[in-house]
Fold this protein.
Amino acid sequence: MKRFTSALLLALAALGAGAHAGAPIPNTPYVKFAHADWTRDATLYQINLRQFTPEGTLRAAQQQLPRLQQLGVKILWLMPVHPIGEVKRKGSLGSPYAVRDYRAVNPEFGSVDDLRRFVDAAHALGMRVILDWVANHTSWDNVLMKRHPEWYARDRQGRPAPTPWFDWDDIVDLDYAQPGLRRYMADAMLYWVRDVGVDGFRADAAGLVPLDFWDAVAAELRAVKPVFLLAEWESRDLHARAFDATYAWTWWDTLEAIAHGKKDATALYPYYAWNEKFYPREAYRLLYTTNHDKNAWDGTEFEIFGQAVEAAAVLSFVSSGMPMLYNGQEAGNRKRLAFFERDPIAWRASPWNDLYRRLIALKKDTPALWNGAAGGVMRQVKNNDGKRVFSFVRQQGASQVLAVFNLSAEAVEARLDDALAAGSYRDFAGGAAVQVDRGTTFAMAPWSWRVLVRGKP
């Protein structure tokens, strides 16, 4: 009996193994939606309405749209436009991220009609507009606190409470276990897309809100029209059904460490390896040298990156990712803009405007540099000094870019030891023709860069 049982088990195991071996392993796309066509070569531009113009209004900002069109940016991100809470307000004007009413415009900025006119004017110039959306929390005096107190998260004493561990005491958390809250928030987002014409959202603290909410609301928004959704978070899963783009926090942190001599150029390898192998090809990763948080709390990009600031800016445009500018960068702004007060940008002529305009145009005109799967994959070009020199190519059809960065405070002779870079190029900086072969050497000053382009333009 024992021998019979063993033989039967072996036979069943063989049958099972055979059946399993013959079963196909599915290869289904990870990303379940298509990006809007207008995002593939887009550069994002963040507008802090309070500081963007001396008037600090939507009407005044609208007057700047032709200038932004000439700069070349395509997607305009407006920081929160909603009324700001007064209870536990920080500073005299409060944080725009302490929202008092999701269905209204802050009178400081103007009216809903002013926002409609801003959006219409941007559309007429070929640009798109997204709103900052603060879904994780509200101000303490948000209209929902009286209407639906049950929609708020509670502490162990049963009281509404701010997000734990942070010093966000001017806000209070929402509870996404409440179906009514989910429907209200989705309907509010749909209102701004359907009735006002905005083209998507930047989701503040996106990872603190349940992913299934974002997945559901993204589908509803895209059923209305193509939208662009940016998550202030760094996570692959956000790309599957909801977000076009996520923040590249680790990229910024690594570059900061390199600029301060704490790490060498090889510290970037893990970021780009994960970006290529862990994230889906369709994912847009947001690259920037500053934003409202960095500028207000950590310092300007000039304070943070020092002599490396230009190299960091150029890398954000030519490596895999979606570049972003914070208002004032094109004017070479060197001031930390006050976050809770009016502190208008001092606009002036600056060589930074020309550099960013040319980088934006290069991205638009060079398919190898487009966003996500539309652009070329980054391929490492090996060189003789990998700890100081970061080099790569990106290629899409006839379009190819070779980029070489000296990410160190010393002059280097960078020799390319890889035939992958070989070819005839045009120098982005000066326009000269450059022939590159295996063994070509570039004399590079500290924190300098070379970007060579083949094919259009």
